[in-house]
């Protein structure tokens, strides 16, 4: 497996420059993972498949979904792509490399874990700031146009928010100066996580059912349903920051009521 990966990586660094891989390669990888993981949820919502797992009964209109897709393509080309190009010198200065040998899986896993923990901490506070009245009205309200989120709405946001909260994603790699392969893996996992959190479905196989500290779709869907002053659930990946600072109390109360109602129904049966 390692030899195959190294052979593939050798092909990439032989045929493309580091700048091409780090900027254009990262952009195309992001677009592929994002749209391939997010578009199926539009199909599920339109077709009504797996509706028993849908968190909200309300559906988005086709026009609303089309608006999201068109806006995303515009944002990605006008904001994300230039940002990836301009950030290359910064990552290079911070120690990013693309040469062989590839980092060990132990190093990769430790760095990815560090990125998730740091990103969640930074994102939590940045997200709370965006829920202040002025910032919410002029910036964050764009993201909350979709009270019933679907996968692609995860990156539907004001350009200023993309830059502001995007810092939470890149600060970890900027500190450690990872191998480009590690950076790509982090980007893929982060995209899949945020698409899942906005997908609007709570499946039996969701990570939140296996790992109590993981937020997931049910946790974040609550954030979109409520008014911005009462929503809470500001974390991106985990739930402990909201628990520590008491910003998940409404969500916990709702879960407790649902669970007690389900238990009462089981007893009557």
UniProtKB/TrEMBL annotation:
<dbReference type="GO" id="GO:0008610">
    <property type="term" value="P:lipid biosynthetic process"/>
</dbReference>
<keyword id="KW-0812">Transmembrane</keyword>
<feature type="transmembrane region" description="Helical">
    <location>
        <begin position="162"/>
        <end position="187"/>
    </location>
</feature>
<dbReference type="InterPro" id="IPR006694">
    <property type="entry name" value="Fatty_acid_hydroxylase"/>
</dbReference>
<feature type="transmembrane region" description="Helical">
    <location>
        <begin position="68"/>
        <end position="88"/>
    </location>
</feature>
<feature type="transmembrane region" description="Helical">
    <location>
        <begin position="108"/>
        <end position="126"/>
    </location>
</feature>
<feature type="domain" description="Fatty acid hydroxylase">
    <location>
        <begin position="113"/>
        <end position="247"/>
    </location>
</feature>
<keyword id="KW-0472">Membrane</keyword>
<dbReference type="InterPro" id="IPR050307">
    <property type="entry name" value="Sterol_Desaturase_Related"/>
</dbReference>
<protein>
    <recommendedName>
        <fullName>Fatty acid hydroxylase domain-containing protein</fullName>
    </recommendedName>
</protein>
<dbReference type="GO" id="GO:0016020">
    <property type="term" value="C:membrane"/>
</dbReference>
<dbReference type="Pfam" id="PF04116">
    <property type="entry name" value="FA_hydroxylase"/>
</dbReference>
<dbReference type="GO" id="GO:0005506">
    <property type="term" value="F:iron ion binding"/>
</dbReference>
<dbReference type="GO" id="GO:0016491">
    <property type="term" value="F:oxidoreductase activity"/>
</dbReference>
<comment type="similarity">
    <text>Belongs to the sterol desaturase family.</text>
</comment>
<keyword id="KW-1133">Transmembrane helix</keyword>
<feature type="transmembrane region" description="Helical">
    <location>
        <begin position="27"/>
        <end position="47"/>
    </location>
</feature>
């Amino acid at each position: 497996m390692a030899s195959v990966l190294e052979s593939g990586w050798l092909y990439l660094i032989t045929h493309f420059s580091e700048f091409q891989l780090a900027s254009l390669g990262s952009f195309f990888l992001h677009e592929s993972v994002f749209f391939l993981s997010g578009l199926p949820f539009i199909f599920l919502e339109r077709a009504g498949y797996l509706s028993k797992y849908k968190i909200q009964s309300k559906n988005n209109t086709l026009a609303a979904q089309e608006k999201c897709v068109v806006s995303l393509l515009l944002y990605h080309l006008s904001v994300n792509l230039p940002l990836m190009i301009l950030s290359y010198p910064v990552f290079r200065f911070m120690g990013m490399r693309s040469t062989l040998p590839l980092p060990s899986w132990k190093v990769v896993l430790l760095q990815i874990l560090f990125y998730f923990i740091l990103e969640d901490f930074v994102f939590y506070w940045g997200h709370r700031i965006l829920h202040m009245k002025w910032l919410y009205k002029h910036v964050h309200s764009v993201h909350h146009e979709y009270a019933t989120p679907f996968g692609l709405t995860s990156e539907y946001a004001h350009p200023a928010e993309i830059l502001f909260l995007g810092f939470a994603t890149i600060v970890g790699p900027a500190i450690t100066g990872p191998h480009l392969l590690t950076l790509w893996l982090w980007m893929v996992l982060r995209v899949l996580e945020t698409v899942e959190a906005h997908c609007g479905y709570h499946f039996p196989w969701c990570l939140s059912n296996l790992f109590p500290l993981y937020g997931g779709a049910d946790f974040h869907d609550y954030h979109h349903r409520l008014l911005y002053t009462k929503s809470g659930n500001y974390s991106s990946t985990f739930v402990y920051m909201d628990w520590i600072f008491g910003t998940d109390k409404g969500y916990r109360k709702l879960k407790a009521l649902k669970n007690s109602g389900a238990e009462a129904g089981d007893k009557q049966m």
